[in-house]
Amino acid sequence: MNIYCFKAYITVAFGTGFSPLPFSDAPILVANEVTMLAHITYIFGLPIDKAFLSMVVSSMLGSGSATLAGKFIVSNLLKLIPVVGTAAGGTISGTTAVFLTAALSRTYIAYCTKIIKNINKNKVIDQKEAFDEIKRIFKKELKSGNREV
């Protein structure tokens, strides 16, 4: 499965991050990402559990890079400065949102692929093991950079 089929979600992430209203983007970005994960889950033919997907997004964003969190805070503080700060903050915030959303989609695709392989082997993964695996893959994706954005 190719990341490019999720360009719409990544585009929405940039637009959401670019929003001129400081700190307004996080709830919309999370909703976009949960919807994207539900779409991926559907494509894989797995049961969709919105609570699980919300926990996946929260868990991955919580385990994400401190650098990205710093960019989020700085970019939103820049948005408080009219015109120049708004443009710079929006660009940084939008780019960070794209990077996170792309890493999130690659992570979840890799995870769903593993789930399908385990189903074929009649192996069940418990929720703690699932979150540990998702965090491991996400950290690897964050380090790999934005190779497919």
Question: Which features characterize this protein?
Answer:
single chain, 149 residues, mainly alpha, 6 helices, 77% helix, elongated
- Give the averaged pLDDT, no decimals: 75
Q: What's the count of strands?
A: 0
Shape descriptor reads elongated
Total domains: 1
Radius of gyration: 16 Å
- How many H/I helical runs? 6
Uncertain spans: none
End-to-end separation in angstroms reads 14 Å
Strand portion, in percent?
under 5%
Secondary-structure element series:
HHHHHH
Helix content: over 70%
**Structural class by SSE content:** mainly alpha
User: Strand count, sense and closure of the main sheet?
Assistant: none
Structural summary, described in words:
The chain is mostly helical. The chain has one domain. It contains six helices and no strands. The protein has helices spanning 7-18, 25-44, 50-63, 66-78, 84-120, 127-144. α3 (50-63) packs across α6 (127-144). The radius of gyration is 16 Å and the shape is elongated. The model has no long low-confidence stretch (mean pLDDT 75).
Compact overview of the structure:
The chain is mostly helical. It has helices at residues 7-18, 25-44, 50-63, 66-78, 84-120, 127-144.
Helix/strand layout:
Blueprint: H1 7-18, H2 25-44, H3 50-63, H4 66-78, H5 84-120, H6 127-144
